[in-house]
TrEMBL record, chains A, B:
Example of a GO biological process term: tRNA queuosine(34) biosynthetic process
Enzyme class (EC, first level): transferase
InterPro entries: ArchSynthase1/Queuine_TRR, TGT, TGT-like_sf, tRNA_ribo_trans-like
Binding site for substrate: 92-96, 146, 194, 221
Positions of the UniProt region annotated as Disordered: 1-22
Record text on subunit structure and interactions: Homodimer. Within each dimer, one monomer is responsible for RNA recognition and catalysis, while the other monomer binds to the replacement base PreQ1.
Biased composition (Polar residues): 1-21
Keyword annotations from UniProtKB, A to Z: Glycosyltransferase, Queuosine biosynthesis, Transferase, tRNA processing
Similarity comment: Belongs to the queuine tRNA-ribosyltransferase family.
Name of the protein in its database record: Queuine tRNA-ribosyltransferase
Classification lineage: Bacteria, Pseudomonadati, Bacteroidota, Cytophagia, Cytophagales
GO cellular component: cytosol
EC number: 2.4.2.29
One of the record's GO molecular function terms: tRNA-guanosine(34) queuine transglycosylase activity
Length: 376, 376
C-alpha cells in the first residue's frame, strides 16, 4: 500500500492523495459507503461502481462473522469473492457492534464475550481472533480491536479503556505481523486512537498509535454524542501528532458539514451509515440542501431530485414520484434515496478534492456548509 | 394500434405478433410486469428496460386513483410522465382490487362503492368513472370495468354478474368513444370475457365481447382458484370465439407452465404478480427449475444464480450470496430476486416466440414445462 499526497491546502490541513491497494486506487479525501452485512443496503454492486463511484466500501466484522460466517466466506474466497465487489474493502474490528448490538457483553483483558443479537449464541472476540477473522474476510484494510467509549465517559474509565485498547493493539499487531492474507493480495492494519474527549488522553493515544508506524491510522470514539466543537478540537489535536504522510481515517463520521470540517483538519477517509439510513427514512442530502421527501410540499414537484448532482436516480426520477414511493411504502423509494445520498456523499468528497487542488478549499467549504444545512 | 400476426404454429393455436402503440412496439407473446402503484416493486425503471427488457408494464387503477391521486397524475402528464417509463402501459379497471382489498364494497348496477384500504375514505367506481380515471392515468391500453367472480361461484351469480359486466361494458365503450386521451397519444379499450367456469356463460360472454370489435380482448376471472384443467378448457373455448386477428390478453396468469399452455391456446399477453411477489419471498424461477433460495443447501453454492438465463443479476451474484441476503433480511435480496424472476419471465415468452417461429413450439413447451417444475 502506498499513500501519495498530491496537494496540500495553504489555508488548512486539507490535502489530496492517492492510496493504492491491490484492489485498486482510492483517491482521498474519500467517503466509504457502509456495507454492513456484505451489502450496501438497497444498492446493487454495479450501482456502487458506476453511479456512485465508490472507491472502497466497508464491511462489519461482527455481522459477517455471525452471518454468513467464516466458513462460507473462506470458501467464497473472502468477501470480494462472496459479494463480487472487486474494489477495496475495509472492515471494522467488530468492537463497536459488540458494544451496541449484542445482548450481553463482558469486557475483560483477554477480550469481549457477547451474545449474538441473532440467536443469542455466545462468542468471544479477542484481539488475535479479530485479526484472524479479518484475514478470513479478506479486507484490504483491517482495523485493530478497540473499545469505543461512550459519551459522556468519566476520566478514569476513559483512561483505563484507552490503556487496554493500546495493549490490545500490541496483540493485534503481533498476530497481524505473524500471519498472511489468504487470497493472494496484501492486507493492512490501521490502529485506532481513543481517549474520549480528554485532550491529554487523546494526545497520549495519538502518540502511542503514531509510534507503531502502521500503514494508516484511525480516529475512533467520536460522533458518539459529544458536541461538534469537541469533536473538531479532538481531531485537530490528534492530527497534529499522527504522521502527515499516512492516511487518516475518522471512523463513523458524519454529516456533510462534519466531513468538510474534518477534511480541513487533515482527515482523508470517512465512513458513516447516515446517507443510507437517512435515505431509508426519506431524508435526502442534495446539492441544494436537506429534503424530507415525505413532506406534502413535494407532492407536485415534478423537477428532478437533484439535477445539479447528475446521475441516473437524481435526474431520472422526480421529487413528486419519490415522495409517492415513500408514502406508498414502495421498496424503490429507499433504493432511489440511497443512490441519491451516496452519490451526493461521493460528489461532496470529489468536490472537496477539486477545491483543494484549485487552492480555494476553505472558501468553498464555508459556502457549501451553509448551503448544505438549508432545510428545503 | 395495429396488431400483426407474424407466425402461427401448425400444431397449436400459438402465434407470434407485434402490437404497435404510440409508445412503441410489443412483441407477442409477451409478459407484462405488474407495477401496482406506478413502480414494479424493487426494480428501477432502467432495469426494466435494459435488464428485463419489458415491452410494457401494468399499473393498477385502484392504487393509482387512491395514491398519488388523479390531480398529481394529471399534472405529471399521466403515469408515463410521473414514473418516467416511456414504453407502453396497460391499466386494469380497478375492479379486482376493489373486491380484494377494500374493506367494504357494495356492487350495484350503477357501480361499486368501497372504502379505501389506506384511510377508510369512501369512493365509487362506475364504468364511466373508471374510463375517465384511465384517461387521466394515460395508459396505452385501458381495461373495461368488470366484476371478477370468485371461485367457486354459483351459476345464478355468475350469470347475473356476467350480464352486468356486459351492461357495464356498453357504458365503458360509450364513455371511451366520446372522450379522448389527454396527452397527445392514442389509448385503446379492451373488454373482458367473464362467466366463471361455465362453458355456456363463457361462450355467451366471448360472443358478446367479440361483437364489440374492439382493438384487443381480454379473458378475466381465471386463476382465481379453479383447477388448471378448467382454466385451460375455458381459454380454449373462449379463444375459438374471440377474433384471431386481435390480441388476446389473459389477466393475472400465472405460473411459467400456465403461460406456456395458454400460449398454445392462442393467448398473446399475460400479467401476474407471481414473479415479483415470489421473489420477495426468496422463491426463484430459473432456467433449471424452482429454487427456494432460503434453503440451507444453497449456503455454499457459489455458482451464479442462473448462468443460462444471462444478464446482470443472474450471472453476477451467486446463490450463496443471495441466500445470505435473504437470511440477513437485506433489501438487496428482494431486488436481485425480482430481477431474476422478471428476467426469467421475459426470457420465457421470448423463447416461446422463437420456438413458434422455428416451428417446434409444442415439443419445446412440453420439455420446458417438465423442466421448469423441478424443485431444485
Amino acid at each position: 500500500m502506498t499513500f501519495t499526497i498530491e496537494q496540500t491546502d495553504p489555508q488548512s490541513q486539507a490535502r489530496t492523495g492517492t492510496l493504492t491497494t491491490d484492489h485498486g486506487a482510492i483517491q482521498t479525501p474519500i467517503f466509504m459507503p457502509v456495507g454492513t452485512a456484505g451489502t450496501v443496503k438497497a444498492v446493487h454492486q454495479r450501482e456502487l461502481e458506476t453511479d456512485i463511484n465508490a472507491h472502497i466500501i466497508l464491511g462489519n466484522t461482527y455481522h459477517l462473522y455471525l452471518r454468513p460466517g467464516l466458513d462460507v466466506l473462506r470458501q467464497a474466497g473472502g468477501l470480494h469473492g462472496f459479494n463480487g465487489w472487486q474494489r477495496p474493502i475495509l472492515t471494522d474490528s467488530g468492537g463497536y457492534q459488540v458494544y451496541s448490538l449484542s445482548n450481553t457483553r463482558k469486557i475483560k483483558e483477554e477480550g469481549v464475550t457477547f451474545k449474538s443479537h441473532i440467536d443469542g449464541s455466545k462468542h468471544t472476540f479477542t484481539p488475535e481472533g479479530v485479526m484472524d477473522i479479518q484475514r478470513t474476510i479478506g479486507a484490504d484494510i483491517m482495523m485493530a480491536f478497540d473499545e469505543c467509549t461512550p459519551y459522556p465517559c468519566d476520566y478514569a474509565y476513559a483512561k483505563a479503556s484507552m490503556d487496554m485498547t493500546h495493549r490490545w493493539l500490541d496483540r493485534c499487531i503481533r498476530r497481524f505481523d505473524e500471519t498472511e492474507g489468504h487470497y493472494g493480495y496484501q492486507q493492512y492494519l490501521f490502529p485506532i486512537v481513543q481517549g474520549s474527549t480528554y485532550p491529554d488522553l487523546r494526545r497520549q493515544s495519538a502518540e502511542t498509535i503514531a509510534s507503531k508506524e502502521r500503514t494508516g491510522n484511525a480516529i475512533g470514539g467520536l460522533a458518539v454524542g459529544e458536541p461538534a466543537e469537541d469533536m473538531y478540537k479532538t481531531i485537530d489535536l490528534v492530527n497534529e501528532i499522527l504522521p502527515r504522510d499516512k492516511p487518516r481515517y475518522l471512523m463513523g463520521v458524519g454529516t456533510p458539514a462534519n466531513i468538510l470540517e474534518a477534511i480541513a483538519l487533515g482527515v482523508d477517509m470517512f465512513d458513516c451509515v447516515m446517507p443510507t439510513r437517512n435515505a431509508r427514512h426519506g431524508l435526502l442530502f442534495t446539492t441544494a440542501g436537506i429534503i424530507n421527501i415525505k413532506n406534502e410540499k413535494w407532492s407536485r414537484d415534478f423537477s428532478p431530485i437533484d439535477a445539479t448532482l447528475g446521475g441516473y436516480a437524481s435526474t431520472f426520477y422526480s421529487k413528486a414520484y419519490l415522495r409517492h414511493l415513500f408514502k406508498a411504502d414502495e421498496l424503490l423509494g429507499g433504493q432511489i434515496a440511497s443512490l441519491q445520498n451516496l452519490t451526493f456523499y461521493l460528489w461532496l468528497v470529489r468536490q472537496a478534492r477539486a477545491h483543494i487542488a484549485a487552492g480555494d478549499f476553505v472558501a468553498w467549504k464555508n459556502e457549501m456548509t451553509t448551503r448544505l444545512m438549508v432545510r428545503m
